[in-house]
Amino acid sequence: MSEVALLWGIGIAGVSGVPGLFFGRYSFTGQCVTTALSVAGSVLGLTGVGLYWLAADGRPLVLPWGVLGADFSVAIDGLSAIFLLPVFLVSILGNIYGLGYWKQADHPENGRKLRLFYGVMTAGMALLVIAHNSILFLFGWESMALAAFFLVTTEDHKAEVREVGFIYLIATHVATLSLFALFALLYVISGSFDLVPLNENSMPDGISTAVLILALLGFGLKAGLMPLHVWLPGAHAMAPSHVSAIMSGVIIKMGIYGLARVLSLFPHPPLLWGGVVLGLGVVSGILGVVFAISQHDLKRLLAYHSIENIGIIAMGLGLALIGRSLNRVDWILLGLSGCLLHVWNHALFKSLLFLSAGSVIHAVHTREIDHLGGLARNMPRTALYFLIGAVAICGLPPLNGFISEYLIYVGLLGTLQESGGPSFTSAAFAAPALALIGALAVACFVKVFGAVFLGQARSARSAPAHEAPPSMLLPMAALSVCCFFIGLVPGFIAPLFEQAAAAWAPELRDALPPLSTLVPLGRIGVMAAALFAALFLGSLLLWARLRNTSVVRHVTWGCGYAAATPRMQYTSSSFAQILVGLFRWVLRPRIQKPAPLPLFPKATSFHSEVPDVVLNEVVLPAFHLNARVYAWFRIFQQGSIQAYLLYIFLTLLVLLFWR
Amino acid sequence: MDTLVHNSVHVVLALTLPPLLLGLIAKTKALFAGRKGPPLLQWYFDLIRLFQKGSVFSQTTTWVFRAGPVVGLVTAAMAILLIPMVNGIAPLSFTGDLIFLAYILGLGRFFTALAALDTGSSFEGMGAAREVTFACLAEPAFILGLMVLAKLSGSLKLATMLDGSLATHWSSSGASLVLVLLSWFIILLAENSRIPFDDPNTHLELTMIHEVMVLDHSGPALGMILYGAALKLFVFAALIVRLALPVNMGDPWLDWPLFIGGTLLVAMLVGVVESVMARLRLTHVPVLLIAACLLSAFGAILLVR
């Protein structure tokens, strides 16, 4: 039943953009029809997920389907259900947000294209999550990846958008290529395309290592793990904000889903695997947030935070893997629950942040943090939602981000009690790294929120800003409510994560304890509620004191200087300066300082930026070198599609007669 | 019954004792300088007076500016309830409360820094930037120290980690604990903006950290900030006392005075440090904090090797 509802939902969402194509370029009706269809499809999909959780019996649905060389076989289990929820939820909210943010009347040239591919992408993601064989998985994967390309390049009349679009396209194709190799290897091992647990005894060591490397490359590229993140900041920054929201909130999680799914097929992974994933997570987490701090572009900054959060998610997954190698069910449960709950949480608060950043950009038409300021006065609701997202992403109680980080902390510190020697307890040293990540995130979001929403407007641009329309505020409100909900009653959703862990490690299904025996989630919820109550009382106290004493409004104390202007405020770059200095060995900031001034100085300027080190100093030089070395190959690259079809035909012919 | 009495004493002490520590620091410094110094209870008088005064709010500020002091005070007060003072009992105690402690203090820092930025003053921006930056280095050191205690006690509850059994570990793993103690004392100085990190008495806004963040606060809001700062100092002092003197006499009439004496001793020690040291150059502050991280890290490595 739940599968049928899901498939209908996927179908409706997938074609939701088609009717819109038949309406005019300026037609609001067409926009509403598309949005309504897409929302209806996603709601149907959510119903399917809900039905699965209520009944908790996912029966695989197999339809014979010869087209792609394998059956059309779908199945929901605890793991896929966890990932389906953010897919549909963020899609619904993003669609509603788009009504006001990307009006067809304002964007006649690309509005219909955007909504068409928004639906295709939603359907692709849902399909890959429930796919039960690798062919269908790849089908969903490519639908998602290509639709995302068209979404990133929505404004393809801009050169910079085309540039990041190409980088994304190359990255996603490399990912797909390694996935082809990965699934081919799995086919060689198991003899079938079905995604079922493997028998490791029949597997040489070399093959399983190759599987890990290919999975890390293919899925890591999509997820944006640190050295593979090159496409991510640009693509997130250039896409329309509700597209950034779903890309950052959900698409990159498909990489995590794929990694978790493929790793779940190995009942006894080597201990090193968990260590590698955990280590990559730590690197990604720390460097992601460090790069975020040094950014001047609001959406680029949020994009780097996605890399950081993917790092935290990978840390949880790494811990679960270590637990599986050592048969420690408590580590599996804590690590995987932390990982998956952080997938949810990041989907919620990062979408919230991108949507509120979008409403800032909608109002002031710039992403430069240092041109903004004082927006909290003109856009109080947007400011409040951004603040909620900021507190949540920093992992601070009483919101949802704290819960998942807490689970990972408890799991990591739990490894200290293992008496097997230093190689087992070294996982615990990821805990201080997580603390560093958390503190750096606080620094970064104090900087962003302060520079964008507080103080005074730094340029004439942000002075006349206006609040966003209700259709944009409503999705933000919904996401905020979700953040509060998970923060206050984490125990309520715990069973869903126990199911997911059981689906991830089926051989330990019966040994898994309830999450409540490992961590007092109910107690944490009470603490969060108590914190709220205390904050309320404290505010009441201050309010009462202010009512009974005199309150005067005056200018900010300028330390004796009477003519301070808004341009003298501390900028976001100055705010980040000490931290950028501490991490300059990896950030490699480019700073243009004015030369020493002559006796009668003229106007001069200071400029600093932190470009992406991996992209600019590794990937691009390597590609340029490649282009030079393989210049002779261009004789085959004629640009005529007939020639390419001929190549394909010849290749097939050769393969046909290979043996 | 016993727990109830303990918890009541805990709460009453937590609410009343902290300003005395600040008074004691000032008195110690005065003694070193050969001055008479303000009375020990000066901070109580200050707080009472501030709560009765009127306030001046900058026209630039929003509600965030008023939320800063409230969140700062409430989070510090909640943090105190997580710290065991005697006998391994804390009013609020659960698995992983150490994480809650670290992050709830982070919440207070988040809003205090935002309130500073809300004024639009560049001086307060500087203070906020320094505060959050130095916290980035203090946080890992704190967690590394907690790792040592978690490994020794086999628990993730602060109350159990710092109970009487720690005394036996002092003889077996003293080296690790000494390193953590040093590291935490450095963090106490950094988190509470004491010399050598920050000089609470300086009169040059350019060089301050915490004090410059609260330049624009006045009246009851300033009172809340100062009281919150005192509570935060008490949190760290209590942690250090439990770490250094984890003894259980079994008799509350001995345990409580011992704990109170311990916190007063920590306050005097802070006063001594402030008297004999100069403030570090701002560029050298990260170096000392990284040293604190390394001290704790060595402590942890000694244990898990």
Low-confidence spans of chain A: pLDDT under 50, at least 5 residues? none
Count of separate DSSP helical elements of chain A: 25
Indicate the radius of gyration of chain B in whole angstroms.
19 Å
Name the beta content range of chain B: under 5%
* Large-scale geometry of chain A: globular
* Spatial order of the strands forming the largest sheet of chain A: 1-2
Distance between the termini of chain A: 46 Å
- Taking the alpha carbons of the first and last residues of chain B, their distance comes to 43 Å
What number of structural domains do the residues of chain A give? 3
Instruction: Give the chain pair forming the largest contact, with residue counts.
Output: A-B, 86 and 82 residues
The class by helix and strand makeup of chain A works out as mainly alpha
Following the backbone from N to C, one meets helices and strands of chain A in this order, namely HHHEEHHHHHHHHHHHHHHHHHHEHHEEHH
Q: What's the pLDDT, averaged over the residues of chain B? A: 91
**What is the count of helical runs of chain B?**
13
Model regions low in confidence, pLDDT < 50 over at least 5 residues of chain B: none
Question: How many discrete domains of chain B?
Answer: 1
Computed structural class of chain B: mainly alpha
Kindly describe this structure:
The complex is a heterodimer of chains A (659) and B (305). Chain A has three domains: 207 residues; 300 residues, no CATH class; 46 residues, no CATH class. Helices cover 68% and strands 2% of the residues of chain A. Chain A contains 25 helices and five strands. In chain A, the strands form two sheets. Chain A has a two-stranded antiparallel ribbon. In chain A, helix 6 runs antiparallel to helix 7. Chain B has 13 helices and one strand. Classes of the chains: A mainly alpha (659), B mainly alpha (305). At the A-B interface, helix 15, helix 16, helix 18, helix 21 and strand 3 of A face strand 1, helix 4, helix 5, helix 6 and helix 11 of B. Strand 3 of chain A pairs parallel with strand 1 of chain B.
